[in-house]
């Protein structure tokens, strides 16, 4: 069925691609001084942490460790969703450029 994840590698690839897209957005924001650069750093940290924590979960030492690392990834996805929404609401990034990222962050949170 479309949209379902059947393999752990699919969610790991999806979070990797999401992080790449956020990196590209942050590169353009970081070139601007002040608030934009500060928000870009916050967004970059949380967005790249989602996939990094899922990668760590793959090497977990126990089921509890796996659950813990996956829950951290979920929290980071929620934080990323917040920063993306804030960038849009503050008119720093137009909706046309950020709406797909906002949607993906919401979907990743729901999956995790």
Question: Topology, pairings included?
Answer:
Blueprint: H1 8-30, H2 35-58, H3 63-89, H4 95-111
Helix pairs in contact: 1-2, 1-4, 2-3, 3-4
Task: Give a structural overview.
The chain has 112 residues and is mainly α. The chain has a single domain (8-111), classed as de novo design (two linked rop proteins). It has four helices and no strands. The radius of gyration is 14 Å and the shape is elongated. Residues 1-6 have low confidence and may be disordered.
Outline:
Helices cover about 80% and strands about 0% of the residues. The protein is mainly alpha-helical and about 110 residues long.
The geometry reads as elongated
Q: Give the CA-CA distance, first to last residue.
A: 18 Å
Question: Regarding CATH, which class?
Answer: Mainly Alpha
Radius of gyration: 14 Å
Q: Tally the helices: what do you get?
A: 4
Primary descriptors:
mainly alpha; 112 residues; de novo design (two linked rop proteins)
